[in-house]
Amino acid sequence: LVTALPPVLPQRFRMLMASPAACYKLFREKQKEGQGEATMFKGKGTAGTDTKRVTINKVLSSDTLVQQNHYVQRCIDWNRDILKKELGLLEEDIIDLPALFKLDKQGKAVSYFPNMVTMIILAKDLGIPKPFGPVIGGECCLEQWTRSLLEPLGLCCRFLEEVASYHGSLGEVRCGTNVQRRPFAFKWWHMTP
Q1: Domain that includes residue 124, residue range
Q2: Is residue 155 part of a domain?
Q3: Contact (Cβ atoms closer than 8 angstroms) between residue 120 and residue 174
Q4: pTM for the whole thing?
Q5: Does residue 124 contact residue 156 with C-beta atoms inside 8 Å?
Q6: DSSP 116
Q7: Alpha-carbon Rg for the chain in angstroms
Q8: What are the Cα distances from residue 141, in Å, to 1, 3, 84, 94, 130?
C-alpha cells in the first residue's frame, strides 16, 4: 500500500499511499458532475468483482464496500502516522492515490481494482497498473487523477494492463516484473550513511 518515489528535490523523496478516502472523494465529485453512471471495468473481469454494471453510483451506494473501505482507510492512516514520524515526512511529502478494497473471508484487504500504488519505477518512468476505472470523456478518471498528481513532478505515467496476468491472482505489476539494474560502482556494504 506504499511506494517511495525517487527524489524530485535533493535529499527528498515522496511517498505514495493507497487511499480509499481519495477514491471516494473523486467518485463523489464525478457523481456531482452528473457522471454517476460512468462504468468501471469496461470489458475486463477482475478477481471476484461483478463487472456487469459497476458504476460510480453503485460503488458509492454499496454500504458493505463503504464500511470495508472505511476500516481499511483507518488502518492506512495508522500506518501513515508511523511512517511520517519514523521517516521525518511532512504531509506534502505524501501523495494519496485512489484505491478501493474489499475484505475477503479472512478479513484481508484485497484490491477492488488494480492498485496503482503497486507500480514499477524506472527512473522517471512509472509502470502503473491500469485501474479500469470509470471512463468519462473517453478517459479513465482514475488515470487522469493520477497523472495530475505525478506528471507535475516530472514523472511519466504509463498504465499497463495486467488484470488477467496478475490482478486476478491477487498481485499487481511489480509482482511479476524483474528489473535489471546497473550495480553500484562501489561496494555498497562499505558505505557509511
Answers
A1: 2-41+52-185
A2: yes
A3: yes
A4: 0.79
A5: yes
A6: T
A7: 18
A8: 20, 21, 28, 21, 11
Which CATH number do you get for residue 174?
3.75.10.10
- Residue that the C-alpha cell 473517453 belongs to: 138
pLDDT band at 3 (very low <50, low <70, confident <90, very high): confident
Residues noted as catalytic: 175
| 176: pLDDT strictly greater than 60 | no
Res 170: pLDDT:
47
Instruction: Retrieve residue 139's grid coordinates.
Output: 478517459
Please tell me the total count of domains within the chain: 1
For 67-79, write each residue's pLDDT tens digit. 999 999 999 999 9
Contact 14, 153 (CB under 8 A): yes
Quick one: cell of 166? 496478475
The verdict on residue 192 lying in a domain is no
